[in-house]
Amino acid sequence: MSTYIITGAARGLGLEFVTQLSAEKANTVFALVRSKSSAAALAELSRRNVIILEADITDADSLKVVLEFKKLPRAVAEATGGKVDYLINNAAIHDHSKVTLDAYPTPAAIEADLLENFRVNTLGTIHATNAFLPLLRAGSVKKVVTLTTGAADIDLTAALSNPGQAGYSISKAALNMAVAKFALALKGEGFVFLAISPGLVATATAPRTPEQAKEYAIFKEKLAKLAPDFKGPITPQVSVQMMLEVIYRWSVEDTGAFVSHHGSKEWL
Ligand SMILES: NC(=O)c1ccc[n+]([C@@H]2O[C@H](COP(=O)([O-])OP(=O)(O)OC[C@H]3O[C@@H](n4cnc5c(N)ncnc54)[C@H](OP(=O)(O)O)[C@@H]3O)[C@@H](O)[C@H]2O)c1
Predict the structure, then answer these.
(1) Fold of 3-205+236-260
(2) Which residues form the Ketoreductase domain (predicted)?
(3) pLDDT in tens, 130-157
(4) 71 is catalytic
(5) What are the pLDDT digits (tens) for 191-217?
(6) Is there a catalytic annotation at residue 104?
(7) What is the distance between the alpha carbons of residues 21 and 48, in angstroms, rounded to a whole number?
(8) Measured CA angle at 102 (ends 93, 219), to 5 deg
């Protein structure tokens, strides 16, 4: 029996984490969404051990962020007796922009893109981690899992010859370092931090535009050259099953690592 907090739980991998973890009735799962009104699939789960809370992991108004994160853990604390075992930092934005760093129309456009990715993916995750540390400290498991991406791995970026997705990749590379820093700061307390890539997962709900479909075909060709056995994106179900296996076996000795759903540097 464990207690989990999952951010970005309205859809995609976050929703799948909630679905799999709450299937065990003894678990308690706090599903954090930006807005309950756009979390219909999560509401449909309708499980007694799933508690849906509204939270944006970032807020332009820094004071609001502080207030929100002070309020939320109190709500969580009431329902858990003040203890949480696992935090799964899943929420993120990820566009598939092909614009390379040398080709943004203006310096301001570079700043806008990179700062927005950094604000949500890096800072938002840091805020969420800090907000729930007191509850995690009181628990006995103390695991903080952060969803990252192989697109933040320099060797894979070179192998795929992928100069695009700059804002996303840079924000996630920074996030990996944030995880390593948290890990070092809290290793002495028995915390286990892990940055994990879910693989290439079919989570997109919106149909691809013709332009996106073309880019995706080129991407698949590159993947096929790199990994001839690659069969295409895996399902959220398979990805979450594989990540949970890694998460459960990860220990404090290897805290702060950046690995894939295989528990290694095998990104696909
Ligand atoms: N899918 C893949 O192939 C893949 C590959 C590598 C890494 N990842 C990583 O895996 C994680 C999940 O990916 P996914 O494909 O499931 O993504 P997704 O379908 O786009 O879902 C992302 C979730 O994050 C939430 N979110 C975004 N900004 C937020 C904010 N400011 N505050 C709170 N929640 C916010 C979204 O909320 P709304 O529903 O309100 O928009 C959504 O529920 C991400 O960290 C992603 O970078 C995915």
Answers:
(1) Rossmann fold (3.40.50)
(2) 2-199
(3) 888 988 999 999 999 999 999 999 999 9
(4) no
(5) 999 999 999 999 875 556 787 777 777
(6) no
(7) 13
(8) 55
